[in-house]
Amino acid sequence: MSHVMHYGDLSIANEFVADFQGWKKGPEQFVPDYEKNEGGAWPSRDIPLLMLEKQYQEEDGMHQKFEIRRQIRKLERKREYLHNFMKKLVERIIHDPVQQRRIMNVHPETINDFQCHDKLLKAFHKICFNLAKVSSLEKNNLLLAHSIQ
């Protein structure tokens, strides 16, 4: 079963989009570079890492640069560990590979059952990680939300 949903008039599904929008190319749209986005919004889980990278670029002293680089690597290792932990957790709970990918990659926009979500977060906090101390857990919190949908 595909995760793709179809809506509307499916009788035009085999038609070319250009038949409706025209065949001429439009002007190229500007796509901001994520790495160089000065004034835009960043995912909150990335803020600590971005701040460290900015400090590293602005620092002149070799010893301070070394210390900041060490902090960046530590944060990246924690994220990688947490990602691998969540992946293994999903693989142990859900045995269907298609469902595993869906849970890991497609996140709900809202939480429908707050009591269930609260119980799940408290159990996760007690058994696995102290959620308050783990920055970058926002994305994985969505994973937990998805698992109860």
TrEMBL record:
Gene Ontology CC: one annotated term: vacuole
Top-level taxon of origin: Eukaryota
Molecular functions per Gene Ontology: cysteine-type endopeptidase activity
Classification via InterPro entries: Legum_prodom, Legumain_prodom_sf, Peptidase_C13
Signal sequence annotation: none
GO biological process: proteolysis involved in protein catabolic process; vacuolar protein processing
Family: Belongs to the peptidase C13 family.
Protein name: Mediator of RNA polymerase II transcription subunit 7
Species of the source: Anisakis simplex (Herring worm)
